[in-house]
Structures are given as structure tokens and as C-alpha cells.
């Protein structure tokens, strides 16, 4: 049981490090929406603004798009100085485990302070 817990923690740590590296490469003002609860991402956006960012970009793909919209709306409604600058949608092509190409919808919401 302890081995499974350690493996899970290691997997989560690797994912978090990968997200952090991707954010550094893209300028640091990105919040990528995944499987966590919406409030975790709201906290990430608020932290970015608290660190002095003028804009934060919320990105999501596939089923996480609705969570990205939720995060943007929660931040906008809780902070009157934050507004939505732009919303863009796209289709990204991802290769599945068995090598087939798969088209996935994506959204990018730019929040400004």
C-alpha cells in the first residue's frame, strides 16, 4: 500500500515539475487546466496576479475546457479588477498511444488585471 502511495506521489511530482518547466519556457504566465479541482487553478491564477503579472493565460484541452471557463469566471467575479481580455479556440493534433492522430479542441482565455 505504501509503495502505491509513493509511486502516485512520484508521478504527481513529475507532472508538477513538467508543468513548471513548460510555464518557464512560455513566460510563466500560463495556467494549464487539468484534473484538479477548479479552486486549485483559481489559486494559481490569483498567485500569478499577486506576483505582479498583468496578464494570465488559462489554457485547456478537451474535457477540461469547461473547467477553464469556470476558473476564468470565478476569478473575474471574485476580483473586480480582473477582466477577460480575449478568448481563442483551436484544434490541436495529438498522437495516441497506438500512434493514431487525434484532433482535440483547445481554449485559451487571457485574463488581464
Automatic annotation (TrEMBL):
<dbReference type="GO" id="GO:0005694">
    <property type="term" value="C:chromosome"/>
</dbReference>
<feature type="domain" description="DNA/RNA-binding protein Alba-like">
    <location>
        <begin position="29"/>
        <end position="90"/>
    </location>
</feature>
<dbReference type="GO" id="GO:0003723">
    <property type="term" value="F:RNA binding"/>
</dbReference>
<dbReference type="GO" id="GO:0005737">
    <property type="term" value="C:cytoplasm"/>
</dbReference>
<dbReference type="GO" id="GO:0030261">
    <property type="term" value="P:chromosome condensation"/>
</dbReference>
<dbReference type="InterPro" id="IPR013795">
    <property type="entry name" value="DNA/RNA-bd_Alba"/>
</dbReference>
<protein>
    <recommendedName>
        <fullName>DNA/RNA-binding protein Alba</fullName>
    </recommendedName>
</protein>
<dbReference type="Pfam" id="PF01918">
    <property type="entry name" value="Alba"/>
</dbReference>
<dbReference type="GO" id="GO:0003690">
    <property type="term" value="F:double-stranded DNA binding"/>
</dbReference>
<keyword id="KW-0226">DNA condensation</keyword>
<keyword id="KW-0158">Chromosome</keyword>
<keyword id="KW-0963">Cytoplasm</keyword>
<dbReference type="InterPro" id="IPR036882">
    <property type="entry name" value="Alba-like_dom_sf"/>
</dbReference>
<feature type="modified residue" description="N6-acetyllysine">
    <location>
        <position position="35"/>
    </location>
</feature>
<dbReference type="InterPro" id="IPR002775">
    <property type="entry name" value="DNA/RNA-bd_Alba-like"/>
</dbReference>
<comment type="function">
    <text>Binds double-stranded DNA tightly but without sequence specificity. Involved in DNA compaction.</text>
</comment>
<feature type="region of interest" description="Disordered">
    <location>
        <begin position="1"/>
        <end position="22"/>
    </location>
</feature>
<comment type="similarity">
    <text>Belongs to the histone-like Alba family.</text>
</comment>
<keyword id="KW-0238">DNA-binding</keyword>
<keyword id="KW-0007">Acetylation</keyword>
Amino acid at each position: 500500500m505504501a509503495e502505491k502511495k509513493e509511486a502516485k506521489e512520484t508521478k504527481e511530482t513529475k507532472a508538477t515539475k513538467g508543468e513548471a518547466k513548460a510555464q518557464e519556457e512560455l513566460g510563466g504566465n500560463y495556467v494549464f487546466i487539468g484534473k484538479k479541482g477548479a479552486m486549485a487553478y483559481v489559486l494559481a491564477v490569483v498567485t500569478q496576479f499577486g506576483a505582479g503579472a498583468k496578464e494570465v493565460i488559462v489554457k485547456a484541452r478537451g474535457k477540461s475546457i469547461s473547467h477553464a471557463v469556470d476558473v476564468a469566471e470565478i476569478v473575474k467575479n471574485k476580483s473586480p479588477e480582473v477582466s477577460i481580455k480575449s478568448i481563442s479556440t483551436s484544434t490541436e493534433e495529438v498522437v495516441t498511444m497506438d500512434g493514431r492522430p487525434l484532433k482535440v479542441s483547445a481554449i485559451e482565455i487571457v485574463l488581464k488585471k
